[in-house]
Design goal:
Shape: globular
Number of strands: 16
Organism: Nonomuraea salmonea
Low-confidence stretches: none
CATH architecture: 4-Layer Sandwich
EC number: 1.14.11.41
Largest sheet: 7 strands, mixed
Bound molecules: 2-oxoglutaric acid, fe (ii) ion
Family: Belongs to the clavaminate synthase family.
Keywords: Antibiotic biosynthesis, Iron, Metal-binding, Oxidoreductase
Distance between the termini: 36 Å
Order of helices and strands: HEHHHEHHEEEEEHEHEEEEHEEEE
Mean pLDDT: 94
GO molecular function, one term: 2-oxoglutarate, L-arginine oxygenase (succinate-forming) activity
CATH superfamily: Clavaminate synthase-like
Length: 339
Amino acid sequence: MASATDRLSAVSPDVAQEIEELTLRLAKRYDGPEDEELLRELPVVASELPAAQRRFLRGFALDDALGYCVVGGHTVDQTRIGPTPRHWRGRPRPGPELAEEILLLLYASLLGEPFAWKTQQDGRLVHDVFPIKGYETEQLGVGSTDLLTLHTEDAFHPWRADFLLLGCLRNPRRVATTVAELDARLLDPAHVRTLFQPRFLIRPDDSHLAEHNAPSDAYREQFAEIAEMKRDDNRVAVLWGDPAAPYLRIDPYFMEVPDGDDEAAAALAAVGGLLERRTEDVVLRPGDVLFINNHRLAHGRRPFTASYDGTDRWLKRVSVTTDFRKSRERRGTATARFI
Ligand SMILES: O=C(O)CCC(=O)C(=O)O
Ligand SMILES: [Fe+2]
C-alpha cells in the first residue's frame, strides 16, 4: 500500500510564489500554449522547478507502480484567470490562465512530450475541463449531472497518453475526481488470463466525434477514421505487461465483447466490478496538479450540478507520451504535436 508521502507532494507558499513568477514571465514571453519556441524550451526551463518535486515525479514515472500522485500548493490567481468560461470555443487565445497552462506543460515535459488530438477540442494542446450547458448527461469532461464512468484516457487508441495531467484552477463545490488502481491479485486467475487476450471490442469515446468539434476540412480524414473506428471490430486486450502487476486499458462504457464470448463478458465484468469497488475520491483544490499513470489508473468524475455562473469547477488537461516516435507517421513534422 502506498503511503501518503508517495502520493502527495506540496510546494511551500514561498516556492509557489517563485513558480508563479516564473510562469507569468513565460506567459509574457510566448504566444500561447502551442508556441513552438515554448514547447522546445520546456524541459530546459523545467529545471527551474524545485528539485524536490522533480525528484518526486521522477520516482513516480520510473517506479511505474502508482496510478496517480498529486503535486499541490501552487497559487492560482482567481482574479487574473477570471470566471469559468461557458465554452472552450471562441475564447481569446491565449486566455488569462496561460501561466497555469504553462505550469502544466512544464510538469508534462518532465515525464515526456505533451501531445494532443486533431479530433478533440478543435485541436488544442491544453484542454479545458469545465461543465458546458447542454452536455450535462454526456460521458465527457464537460458533462456534469451523470457520473463520468471509470476509464483509461483515450483507451481505444493505440497512441493514447502514457501520462495525463489535470491541473485544478478552481473547484469550490469540491467535486471529486474518481481514481481506481488495479490489484490484479484480487482477480480470478482465469479472468486474468482472458483479460490478457485481445477479446474485447473498444470504440472511441464521444469527445472525438466531429459533432463535438468545429467543422474542419483540414481534419476530415481524422474524423472519418474515428467514425470508422466506431464501426470497427477493434479487439484489444484489457491487461498487458507484467503478469504480476499488469497494465490496464479499460473504458467499459465504450466496450463490448463479441457475441457468445461468455468468458470475456465475465472477465470484463469482474475487472470493472473490482475497479468500482476500489474507487476512491480525489478532491482537487486550486493549485493541485493530478498526475495520472494512464496504464495503471482508471479515472472518472462524480456527478454534480453546474451553476454556469462563472464559479464552476475548472481544470486543465494535458496528455503526455513517453514515445513520440510511435505516432511519427501521423505528425507532419518531427516536432508536430497533434495526432
Ligand atoms: O473532471 C475530472 O475530474 C476528470 C475528467 C476526465 O476524465 C478527463 O478530463 O479526462
Ligand atoms: Fe478522463
